[in-house]
Amino acid sequence: ADPLGKDSTESFPASSMSTEAMIRAFIQVQHASALQLASRIKRLESAVLELSIKSEPRESPPTVEPGRIDLQRFKTSDGPSFTGPFQAVEPFITWMNGVQIFFATKAVWHPVDKIRVVGCLIREANTLAFYANGVETFVTKSWDEFKVSLFEFALPPLWRTEL
């Protein structure tokens, strides 16, 4: 018993296309496929040719002076971040000690490099604004002069009495 009420032996309806039309359509599909394949082969050949041609040597990135670091490749994310709070003595002193250790372990010796890297480690808003406003003058100073300026700004006036 067929649930649809049709004989299951019934075949599919005959196509309305003639054999000649089917062969013509089949040949057109094969022709289009051959054209696509030719296009792909042409692109592949040009890609292989392009790769096989020796490219001109590119300019090497500027070399860093001896004793300096490449600031574009230096990972400041490894260093200690100062997040504040503003004018809190203990967190700032602890952070500054961490910065000194970070510089020693990463072999950062040049004062300008140290000053630029410290700017990437500051996350506290007031101290970061102070740094951003004066960075161009800070890099003309020594590391010790910069630290004095930073201490004077980031710590309260009589901070030594709070220790």
Describe the protein's architecture and organization:
This protein has 163 residues and is mainly alpha-helical. It folds into two domains: 18-55; 76-162. The protein has five helices and no strands. It has helices at residues 19-52, 89-105, 111-121, 125-138, 143-154. Helix 3 packs antiparallel against helix 4 and helix 4 (125-138) packs antiparallel against helix 5 (143-154). The longest helix has 34 residues, at 19-52. The protein is elongated, with a radius of gyration of 36 Å. The mean pLDDT is 87.
Write the layout of secondary structure elements.
Blueprint (H helix, E strand, L loop, with lengths): L18 H34 L36 H17 L5 H11 L3 H14 L4 H12 L9
Radius of gyration: 36 Å
Q: What percent of the residues sit in helical stretches (DSSP H or I)?
A: 40-55%
Q: What is the end-to-end distance?
A: 98 Å
Please give the count of helices.
5
Question: What percentage of the residues does DSSP assign to strands (E)?
Answer: under 5%
The total strand number stands at 0
Which structural class should the secondary elements be placed in? mainly alpha
The major β-sheet equals: none
Short description:
The protein has 163 residues and is an all-alpha fold.
List its traits.
163 residues; mainly alpha; 2 domains; 54% helix; elongated
